[in-house]
Amino acid sequence: MTIQQELHTILVSGLDALSLDLSNKQQQQLVDYVLLMDKWNKAYNLTSVRDPKQMMVKHILDSLAIVPFLDGDNIIDVGTGPGLPGMPLAIAFPDKSFTLLDSLGKRVRFMTQCVHTLGLTNVTPVQSRVEEHNGDTPYDIVLSRAFASLKDMLHWCQHLVDSEGQFLALKGQFPQDEIDEVSDHFHVSKTENITVPNLVGERHLVWLKKK
């Protein structure tokens, strides 16, 4: 079995466990994205995960686990790294618009190549520090799985949304202390405990809005 076939098997099993229905084209785009990440990782050090099969679980399925909870059409993924979770979500939601923001040029070059190779029309990679970025219009959702704390995420990103915009953070342990730290200015509108197939450890989604 080729690595491409192995990745496809892991993906199909994960999609079934997540009750997600993606087309053959979308599945192939996700497999190709992992293969691109593996290829570029050797020179660009995009992720500490070296095994493409582990990339499929720890990066792709982990990102896709939030598909059922993603409302809004104009989304920015801040501190996206090589495009996580924004790139897999953009493949899953071709009708939503995704801005993938990172400060490192090598990551943005990789994402730009992915957009071209995978034929994605709803992804805009942007190289910028988050506090210096301003979208053409306020974003519906500011998304992140990489910020160290909710306080940092909210501090650096609050200018990206208006009063209707939401912040959506993907966290490991439930961040009660972090929530308490920002509760004076933001309120939690929702939390969700999610299960990622084949991934050990907790995953929590936290939605926050400005008070």
From TrEMBL:
Species whose genome carries this gene: Alteromonas marina
Lineage: Bacteria, Pseudomonadati, Pseudomonadota, Gammaproteobacteria, Alteromonadales
One GO molecular-function entry: rRNA (guanine-N7-)-methyltransferase activity
Enzyme Commission numbers on file: 2.1.1.170
GO CC annotation terms, alphabetical: cytosol
Entry-linked InterPro entries: rRNA_ssu_MeTfrase_G, SAM-dependent_MTases_sf
Binding site for S-adenosyl-L-methionine: 79, 84, 130-131, 145
Reactions it catalyzes: guanosine(527) in 16S rRNA + S-adenosyl-L-methionine = N(7)-methylguanosine(527) in 16S rRNA + S-adenosyl-L-homocysteine
Family: Belongs to the methyltransferase superfamily. RNA methyltransferase RsmG family.
Function (record text): Specifically methylates the N7 position of guanine in position 527 of 16S rRNA.
Keywords from the UniProt entry: Cytoplasm, Methyltransferase, rRNA processing, S-adenosyl-L-methionine, Transferase
Localization terms from the record: Cytoplasm
PANTHER family registered for this protein in UniProt: S-ADENOSYL-L-METHIONINE-DEPENDENT METHYLTRANSFERASES SUPERFAMILY PROTEIN (PTHR31760)
One Pfam family here: GidB
Name of protein: Ribosomal RNA small subunit methyltransferase G
